[in-house]
Design the sequence.
């Protein structure tokens, strides 16, 4: 698999704000201000499962997950990070990294399906994306 035929799933595109690209993954910010939430999407056409990636891409993805997690920890100091690659609704391989706080709207339950999404306002979104881009750019 390669990234020449990669296209972002329309649902992921509609629900997120683009942050940028790492070596393998497109980085997206879930457009829900209740939960600081990154999504990493490996730019490999047709990838649905982690096992669809080459061993080299699997290692790169794991390193990118760790790097993005460290960025969230440095920027917002969450109580816990939830990391998941579920894909029941969107089958395109993507990994969620959700910063959780004991006082967030869903704690301690999963964030999926909890209440209505609260989109970032434009200033808040662009400010957070700028911080993420700066921090991810130092990797």
Sequence:
């Amino acid at each position: 698999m390669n990234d020449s035929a990669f296209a972002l799933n329309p649902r992921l595109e509609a629900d997120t704000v683009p942050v940028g690209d790492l070596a393998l993954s497109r980085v997206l910010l879930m457009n829900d201000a209740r939960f600081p939430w990154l999504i990493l999407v490996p730019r490999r056409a047709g990838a649905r499962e982690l096992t669809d990636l080459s061993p080299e891409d699997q290692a790169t993805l794991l390193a990118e997950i760790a790097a993005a997690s460290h960025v969230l920890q440095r920027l917002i100091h969450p109580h816990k990070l939830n990391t998941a690659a579920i894909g029941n609704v969107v089958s395109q391989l993507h990994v969620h990294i959700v910063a959780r706080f004991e006082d967030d709207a869903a704690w301690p339950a999963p964030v999926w399906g909890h209440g209505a999404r609260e989109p970032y306002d434009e200033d808040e979104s662009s400010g957070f994306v700028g911080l993420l881009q700066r921090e991810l750019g130092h990797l």
